[in-house]
């Protein structure tokens, strides 16, 4: 019994680009935190007094730091978008394996290699990301093209899985730091 699903394979291209984007995000967070602390004396004032405090009370180096923090945050978001791409393709569930085909890449892994499967639905939406964590700590991420097929996907996947496979359903990506 073979079942085929239209998917998008989510790939992360470069580990160093991910680390660089995370560093930019942390730097921008620290810059914006310093700005927030410098604006606390005018926290309970009117908007006009807060603007006056920003003009006269906040040091020039903090203003520059905030500007760079906003620029770094923009670049961190852009780098993360560039680093994470999705490629359209097909996922075939066969008797003892799963095969993923895209225009560029083809993957095949056995059901015995699967350690965990995570179904992630951010904030209760119907858009699922499905993570296959394999033995050897390799993670494969897919999105179903038709999200109404999730029930059919799980029902066609479940007879092939052994009892040792951990199935996770969550609203946040359990592997985002990997």
Radius of gyration in whole Å, from Cα? 23 Å
Major sheet details: 8 strands, mixed
**Could you tell me how far the N terminus lies from the C terminus, measured between alpha carbons in angstroms?**
34 Å
Query: pLDDT below 50 for ≥5 consecutive residues: which ranges?
Result: none
The mean pLDDT is: 81
- N-to-C order of helices and strands: EHHHEEEEEEHE
The total of beta strands comes to: 8
Shape: elongated
What proportion of the residues form beta strands (DSSP E)? 25-35%
Name the structural class.
alpha+beta
Helix content range of the residues, please? 25-40%
Q: Numbering strands along the chain, what is their spatial order in the largest sheet?
A: 4-3-2-1-7-6-5-8
Annotation field: number of helices = 4
Write the layout of secondary structure elements.
Blueprint: E1 3-12, H1 15-38, H2 47-56, H3 60-83, E2 84-93, E3 97-102, E4 106-110, E5 114-120, E6 129-134, E7 138-144, H4 150-157, E8 166-170
Parallel strand pairs: 5-8
Antiparallel strand pairs: 1-2, 1-7, 2-3, 3-4, 5-6, 6-7
Structural account:
The protein is α+β, with helices and mostly antiparallel strands and 178 residues long. It is 37% helix and 31% strand. It has an eight-stranded mixed β-sheet with strand order 4-3-2-1-7-6-5-8. Helix 1 (15-38) packs antiparallel against helix 3 (60-83). The two termini are 34 Å apart. The mean pLDDT is 81.
């Amino acid at each position: 019994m073979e079942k085929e699903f239209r998917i998008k394979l989510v790939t992360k291209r470069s580990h160093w680009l991910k680390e660089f984007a995370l560093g930019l995000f942390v730097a921008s967070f620290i810059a914006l935190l310093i700005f927030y602390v410098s604006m606390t004396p005018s926290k309970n004032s009117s908007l006009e007094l807060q603007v006056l405090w920003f003009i006269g009370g906040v040091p020039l180096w903090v203003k520059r730091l905030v500007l760079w923090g906003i620029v770094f945050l923009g670049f961190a978001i852009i780098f993360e978008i560039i680093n994470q791409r999705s490629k359209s393709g097909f996922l075939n569930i066969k008797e003892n394996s799963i095969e993923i085909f895209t225009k560029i890449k083809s993957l095949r892994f056995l059901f015995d290699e699967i350690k965990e499967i995570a179904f992630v639905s951010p904030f209760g939406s119907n858009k699922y990301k499905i993570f296959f964590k394999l033995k050897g700590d390799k993670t494969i991420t897919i999105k179903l093209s038709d999200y109404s097929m999730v029930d059919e996907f799980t029902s066609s996947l479940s007879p092939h899985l052994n009892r040792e496979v951990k199935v996770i359903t969550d609203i946040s990506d359990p592997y985002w730091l990997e």
